[in-house]
């Protein structure tokens, strides 16, 4: 039985944690022994690992260096999860140059790689099972994001303040706090904005229920690698409003009608109002999500992993 060491950023929450857990289960299903960072079996596994899988080309580097020193013959796969190639591109190069294979989460990320890196790159779209589509009569606009500046966590709340008085829309935000200063801002916003509610770090099942029933989900980030929440919205047919950044357009398409410029609070407010007032606009967004549901297929993700491993000589 082959062994993989799975490195995740320290304190990984949200999308990176979801990705790590899903990929670990995928590899176990394929017959691998999976050892994750910080587990008791890490030291023993490092001496026999066939594969090192690192999520984040910058933050995983110290751990990968340590493991490769013990097991230099192990194959190295580096998954670029967002800020490593869009905001810390130079710092990502040492690990990307050493990688036997590189994973990106959407096609536009390939543009950030060198020609040599692209030849070793695989696009693996993140998956989620198809779910029944509920009636979306609730007024909630969902935001599913941790409290980090890059996620622009208060942009949707600010946009809700620009809606006309008669609007029934409200923003429900779930996600862990990893920045005390931002948490203070969020709590002040919640206390003064009747249209905004932050529920903190909730169970994944609760976040998925919110996403399934929401009028739409908003992704206002300044940078994304290929957000889990977008492919989850595809599986549920949930309309998506998103910032026009490569990580979002790589999944949604450049012509997606729910795009707004990063940081454009007025542009987001206009889209939210259209969503409430124009049934055809809402139906178009929902239809576009449903049409892309095949990208989120677990079978497609599994096939992509089999192809990658076979290319490394580590297939079944």
Describe the structure.
The protein is an alpha/beta fold and about 325 residues long. It has two domains: about 5-125 and about 295-310, 3-Layer(aba) Sandwich (Rossmann fold), CATH 3.40.50; about 140-295, 3-Layer(aba) Sandwich (Rossmann fold). It is about 45% helix and about 15% strand. The chain has helices at about 15-30, 40-45, 60-70, 85, 90-100, 115-120, 155-160, 180-190, 205-215, 230-235, 245-250, 265-275, 280-290, 300-310, and strands at about 5, 35, 50-55, 75-80, 100-105, 120-125, 140-145, 170-175, 195-200, 215-220, 240-245, 260. Helix 7 packs across helix 12 and helix 10 crosses helix 13 (about 280-290).
Whole-number count of domains: 2
CATH class term of the largest domain = Alpha Beta
Tell me the Rg in angstroms. Answer: 20 Å
> Which architecture of the largest domain does the CATH hierarchy give at level 2?
3-Layer(aba) Sandwich
Number of strands: 12
Shape annotation: elongated
Largest sheet composition: 6 strands, parallel
Please tally the helical runs, counting DSSP H or I stretches of 4 or more residues: 14
Given the helix and strand composition, which structural class is it?
A: alpha/beta
Query: CATH superfamily of the largest domain, please?
Result: Glycogen Phosphorylase B
User: Unreliable segments (pLDDT under 50, ≥5 consecutive)?
Assistant: none
**Widest β-sheet, arrangement of strands:** 2-1-3-4-5-6
Could you tell me the CATH topology label of the largest domain: Rossmann fold
Q: Mean of residue pLDDT?
A: 90
Helices and strands, in N-to-C order? EHEHEHEHHEHEEHEHEHEHEHEHHH
């Amino acid at each position: 039985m082959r062994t993989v060491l799975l490195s995740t950023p320290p304190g990984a929450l949200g999308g990176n944690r979801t990705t790590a857990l899903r990929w670990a289960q995928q590899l176990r299903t394929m017959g691998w022994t999976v050892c994750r960072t910080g587990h008791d079996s890490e030291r023993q596994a490092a001496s026999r690992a066939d594969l090192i899988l690192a999520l984040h080309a910058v933050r995983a580097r110290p751990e990968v260096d340590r493991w490769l020193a013990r097991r230099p013959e192990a194959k190295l796969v580096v998954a670029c999860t967002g800020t490593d190639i869009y905001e810390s591109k130079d710092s990502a190069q040492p690990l990307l140059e050493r990688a036997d294979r590189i994973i990106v989460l959407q096609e536009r990320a390939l543009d950030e790689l060198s020609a040599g890196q692209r030849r070793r790159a695989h696009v693996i779209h993140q998956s989620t099972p198809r779910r029944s589509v509920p009636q979306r009569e609730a007024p909630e606009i969902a935001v599913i994001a941790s409290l980090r500046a890059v996620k622009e966590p208060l942009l949707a709340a600010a946009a809700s303040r620009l809606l006309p008085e008669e609007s029934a829309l409200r923003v429900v935000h779930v996600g862990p706090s990893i920045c005390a200063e931002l948490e203070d801002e969020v709590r002040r916003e919640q206390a003064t904005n009747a249209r905004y509610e932050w529920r903190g770090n909730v169970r994944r099942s609760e976040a998925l229920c919110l996403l399934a029933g929401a009028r739409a989900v908003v992704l206002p980030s300044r940078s994304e690698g290929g957000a889990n929440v977008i492919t989850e919205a595809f599986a549920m047919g949930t309309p998506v409003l998103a910032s026009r950044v490569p990580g979002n357009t790589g999944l949604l398409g450049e012509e997606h009608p729910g795009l707004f410029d990063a940081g454009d609070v007025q542009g987001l407010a206009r889209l939210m109002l259209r969503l409430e007032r124009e049934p055809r606009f809402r139906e178009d967004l929902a239809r576009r999500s449903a049409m892309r549901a095949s990208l989120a297929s677990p079978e497609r993700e599994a096939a992509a992993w089999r192809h990658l491993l076979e290319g490394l000589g580590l297939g079944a």
